[in-house]
Amino acid sequence: MMTFFADMLSYPFLMRAFIVGALVALCCALLGVSLVLKGFSMIGDGLSHVSFGALTVAMALNLAPLPFALPVVIFAAFCLLKIKNNSVIKGDAGIALISSSALAIGLMAASLTTGMNADVYSYMFGSILSMKESDVSISIVLSIIVLLLFLLCYHKIFSITFDENFARATGLPVSGFNMLIAFLSAVTIVLGMRMMGTMLISSLILFPCLIARQVFQNFFGVTVCAGVLSLISFSIGMVISYQFDAPVSASIVLVNLGMLVIAMMVKKCRH
User: Measuring CA to CA, which residue among 198, 142, 176, 190 is closest to residue 30?
Assistant: First the structure.
């Protein structure tokens, strides 16, 4: 077993993918707990489509994809948050409107310039070869920020997640925390999309929380369990991908799906 992992991680691109993927999966799981419990789970899907549109437009204009896409996705995250809370177009309708429009812009930009080449497909479905050393540095900084946020502000996040009105009454900056979570989610999705792709990156936000909720009923248990399960499912997915030459993103999602089915069956048997 140790020989297998040593051989697998002997490739520099696999080592980078493992580090970035594990950290992104952890961040997605922790942020996803708050997003899912607040009913914002579709924001992750919306941001992934916006990210694809921004990255494709950047390629069409011969610009650096990441520096161009990151501020666009962050701005979209704030807009989606406002739409979710205050807009006339409420709920998932507004998110679907922005995400589908961004996806259409990306596909149109690709078809009119470079066409549906390998780079476009890698953004849609992910590519393990796209991980760079700069991604490792950014993912480490991002994971540190997310972990510190949950360690230092756990009770505040708990309060904002379950009762925003009570949190406002106690003087907590609810809007500021929501914007911070939206900002971190945007950065996480842009990083993770390079490996998971537009179509599947939102699964890293959704699945760990859903699985953890089958096991634990309290916020602390769900948060810790989601983080641990995200690392386990990512590691198993990477091994399956390496062993059977399967797509990394699909392998990770199917592992998460299997874990969710098992957790639901166990919960049903216990009751």
Answer: 142
Write the DSSP string, 35-91: HHHTT-HHHHHHHHHHHHHHHHHHHHTT--HHHHHHHHHHHHHHHHHHHHHH-SS-T
Q: Which position has the token pair 């011969």?
A: 62
CA distance 213 to 225: 9
Higher pLDDT, 196 or 234: 234
Instruction: Give the pTM.
Output: 0.89
Other Cβ atoms within 10 Å of 217 Cβ, number: 8
At 133, the amino acid letter reads E
Reading the block at residue 7, the tokens are 């051989």
Tens digit of each residue's pLDDT (9 = 90 or more) over 141-189: 889 999 999 989 999 999 998 888 888 888 889 889 988 998 999 988 8
Q: On the CB side of 91, how many CA atoms lie within 13 Å of its CA? A: 1
- Integer distance in angstroms from the first to the last C-alpha of the chain? 37
- 223 vs 213: CA distance, rounded Å: 9
Q: Which residues of 103-121 are buried (b: 16+ CB within 10 A; e: fewer)?
A: bebbbebbeeeeeeeebbe
